[in-house]
Amino acid sequence: MNSPLPQLPLVDAEIPERCDAARNRKLLLDAAADLVAELGADAVTMEAVAARAGVGKGTVFRRFGNRAGLMNALLDRSERALQQEFMFGPPPLGPDADAIVRLVAFGRARLDMVTVQGEVLRAAEDSRKSRFSSPARAVSLRHLEKLLTDADAGGDGDIELLASALLAPLEASLVLHQMRVLGMSLTRIADGWEDLVRRIARGASGY
User: Fold this and answer.
1) How far apart are CA 171 and CA 111, in angstroms?
2) HTH tetR-type domain spans which residues (predicted)?
3) Is the pTM of this model over 0.85?
């Protein structure tokens, strides 16, 4: 349980990128992110990304394969940024804070991601045949499992299942539904997640 967390795999990591290829990839992802912000993820097409980036449509297909590959590449980029913060960043998200404090900070940071890149996250979730086996989700689960163990918050319970239960309320599809359809504020959702974490901790170890 205390083994180092794996780094998220790069898209096409087995093929080292030349400088120009890396630059083109960033150009395409920036164009896609801008279109998502303007139109919503469902309206973004490979053709629109190519036009925004000023390249041929074939370039986008060669780089990402299909629309699902593009959405997953956008998700990979945002997940990597969060991963760097909770693995190496300062408190309260990083390693030098109390485990329960870090759990709360992780949930709030992931919810903040939904407000900024929620459409990308939702589209990436929806595009996967099995979103529950994605590398990004695996890293988040491992992180939650370790923090629960460090905090002795699992008691005699099943840490793996408890981590899955804590991650479920942070999924973009659910959070966007709560905000857009049910009218819940991000503050309410984040405070509710913190309350859940602290109730689990108190129930297991009198935290």
Assistant:
1) 8
2) 22-82
3) no
